[in-house]
Fold this protein.
Amino acid sequence: MKNYAEDPDEQDELFEHHRIVCDKGQEPYRIDKFLMDRLPNVTRNKVQSGIKDGFVMVNGVSVKPNYKVHPDDVIVVAMPEPPRDTEVVPENIPLNIVFEDDHLLVVNKPAGMVVHPAYNNWSGTLVNALTYHFQHLPSMANNEGRPGLVHRIDKDTSGLLVVAKDEKSMAGLARQFFDHSIERTYYALVWGEPEEDMGTINVNLGRSEKDRRITVAIEDGSRGRHAITHYKVLKRLRYVSLIQCNLETGRTHQIRAHLKYIGHPLFNDATYGGDKVVKGTKFSKYKSFVDNCFKIIPRQALHAKSLGFVHPISGMLEQFNTELPDDFKEVIEKWEHYVQHN
């Protein structure tokens, strides 16, 4: 049951994981069912998602899940990360633990820390730290190498994650993510001022066909996955706004892509066009001020501020909140001062 929130950046290059050549006597058979029979430990949903995301090619061409394989077809399954041993090397990295009991813990991840080992980031991750500080963390089926994780946030997004310490807790938390019953509140500094004080963005999201590292809105719903983000404006600062976002679904780069879609990209989000002057004047003094703000918060201005869920063992509703990190608070204060005096 893989349902990660806000995946880290994927890579342009795809790495071959499986290559299957169909027999000369192969009968026509749906490719999703064909791969389920041939690949170990995969679900039909996972296979279909991989096909829709372009990770499955037949004779060098992407296909749909209802494609029927034929004799001599060459099927390649390629992923953004190369095949690798799932063993995680424990590393003595300090953790900011907000809450812990015998069944789970809640950590406040700093910006700049990757959540789990992946291509180009095999060490220094949250998972490397977790496996050092905690023994025998569980893993979900088909997600070996990511012990304790039931969700994740981007490398340069700060904030709260819940980590399971036993299998029963992992199953209970994963079910809540799957059911969209987890409460996740993010604070975001965005370019411009949304017209409405609150709203809902309900637009499919999928990988860009031009650049697979980027998630884009699919207005006609022809592909991609259902995605819903609720937002509320907390503070208007003329050229930028502080807004609250609540995730109903958890798609790759959901907040970043949805806010870009409505014309309000995250402040200093280089991937989605927020690392340049999007709103404001052309005066060099203003440009210099914005550049100084970029230096204060050299990342997308996104923080996973609160997290609420039903404790999988006690059944009690748990709610956790964290302060904005210093870089985030400082850049907001800079904008407040600027709009008051200009």
